[in-house]
Specification:
With 154 residues, the protein is α+β, with helices and mostly antiparallel strands. The protein is built from five helices and four strands, in the order βαββαβααα. Strand 2 and strand 3 form a beta hairpin. Helix 1 crosses helix 2. The protein is globular.
Length: 154
């Protein structure tokens, strides 16, 4: 019986609700590992992940096509929110905003995207999240309406 073979690379980007600077640096590694575990449990492979205080970038190899991207994002947001709040990693409660960006890349772009994501701390010294996200939408020629974007407070 023939198998199905795929090679699909996706960068996910989503923000904390209200874009509140909630994720403290001392919890970043633990939360990234937890989210990576969610992806692994869903048959996906995280290549690079970086959790900023107010948004996250996840670059992964989309391997298990039995779960669609919207359902995967829903699971990741729900489970990571519960983890963060149960472990009291933020003051008050933390939630992810509705919506997300999902951007596809070729294998030849894998190394550059990985470096970009892992260099988020330096990157955001020069550009804020709104500029970064609008640049992604424009680069990928995605039509959008400003009122349906994340809540930006920069």
């Amino acid at each position: 019986m023939p198998n199905t073979y795929t090679q699909i690379y996706i960068q996910l980007v989503f923000a904390t609700k209200g874009r509140a600077m909630k994720i403290r640096p001392e919890f970043r590694d633990e939360i990234e590992k937890y989210i990576t575990g969610i992806f692994t449990n869903k048959g996906q492979k995280v290549i690079a992940i970086y959790l900023n205080p107010d948004h996250i970038h996840i670059f992964f190899s989309y391997k298990n096509l039995k779960i669609n991207i919207p359902d995967l994002v829903k699971v990741v947001k729900t489970e990571s929110t519960n983890f963060i709040n149960t472990k009291k990693m933020v003051q008050g409660k933390s939630y992810w905003q509705e919506g997300y960006g999902a951007f596809s890349y070729a294998k030849s772009q894998k190394e550059a995207v990985t470096k970009y994501i892992l260099n988020q701390k330096e990157h955001h010294k020069k550009r804020n999240f709104k500029e970064e996200y609008l640049d992604l939408l424009n680069k990928f020629e995605i039509e959008f309406k400003e009122e349906y974007l994340f809540e930006f407070y920069d």
